Amino acid sequence: MRPILSIIFLTFFSVANAQTVITVDDAVKIALAKNYGILMARNDAEVTRINNSLGSAGMLPSVSLSGSGGYSISDQKQTALDGTVKKYNGTTTQSLSTGVELNWTLFDGGKMFVTKQKLSEIQSLGELQLKDQVLQTQYDVISAYYNVVRQKQQLASINEIIKYNTERVKILQTSFNAGLAAKNSLLQAKIDLNVYKENAISQQYNINTAKKSLSLILGTSTDSLYEVADSIPTGELINKSEMVQKLFDVNTNVLSSQKQVDIAKLTLNEYRKSRYPIINFSAGYSITKRDYTNWNSKQSTTLGPEFQGTISIPLYQAGRISRQVSTQKLEVETMKYNLENVKQKVSTDLSNAINEYDYQQSMLAIEKENNQLTKENLEISIQRLKQGETTTLEVHQAQDDYMQSCTRLVNFKYNLKVAELKLRQLLSTL
Length: 430
Known about the structure:
Layout: H1 6-12, E1 20-21, H2 24-34, H3 36-51, E2 62-79, E3 85-107, H4 111-177, H5 183-218, E4 226-227, H6 240-250, H7 252-273, E5 278-292, E6 299-312, H8 320-386, H9 392-426
Parallel strand pairs: 1-4
Antiparallel strand pairs: 2-3, 3-5, 5-6
Helix pairs in contact: 2-4, 3-4, 4-5, 4-7, 4-8, 4-9, 6-8, 7-8, 8-9
């Protein structure tokens, strides 16, 4: 048997020759380390962190080192004031220069400070988006995990019915051999038993499919072998009124939308700052050396510092800045509309999740009692069949009622868990 869930699984499990039970916390840890959606979101957040620097905002100078060299051959002719003519044929000149230059924007109307603030907001947005991806992955993992548990519980219910049906067949076989039961009753019991065995095989297929879906979310091999827990627990939730009050303060979608509004406003401020003058400063130090042949001087060297300041005042740019400001105002307004839309949506999602949780909780309470009643009814029917006081049709109906109740019970448990997860996801408490 291959190692469980690749290398990362070895961190959590040491048994490779048997299917190891993983908890839901183990599954979440694996997903946080291996899920591709989280890995990509983490990289995106890291990019925003790297870009959030003074240099990216244009607040730091740039320094460069340059060098050049040259070689030339030329014929020279000089005529003095007294008419004397001197000719230099094949004069060669070799030059070599190097220098260090610094360029620094000293003032741009404060745009660089706005840009730095914007980069910080973009980094915060990246962190929120990563958190949102983590929450979504946790929701997907836990839902998929308990879906496997649900399928397992469904199989356990089928196997329990198979035991009851096997006992039913034995009772009818004994009665038939004694001439106390009709053969068609025995045949129907055997048919029912075979149907439930087929259902068990189908349910095992459903379990394997659910496990592969879970492995896909975990970012591990779909051929990995592992086992999950046997029950679906229900956690305690905070007061519903507190949920509504804190929703907008903790929900990642709302917070991300608010950040987008802030970033749009800062971009608008950047465009407005473009109307101000820009003052640049540059400084450098250079060395230039030239060697000559057939000339009055054999060598010359020039060295020293250089300083320069420039000011640029935007007078007319064909309305570019005005257009940018106008369109960005609309973008800010759009982001505000989006924020209100997101708030409305998450409020509706919270209300629906609360209603779903209450509904599933009520249905589960009823079905728990109903499940006990149908099981007791089935056991009584089996005992009556042993005593010849009932028909196989009654037992068949009792088995069917109990099986349907078990199915409803496990589905209500799972649906209640999913509703709880949705509430926790909305409140960022997963």
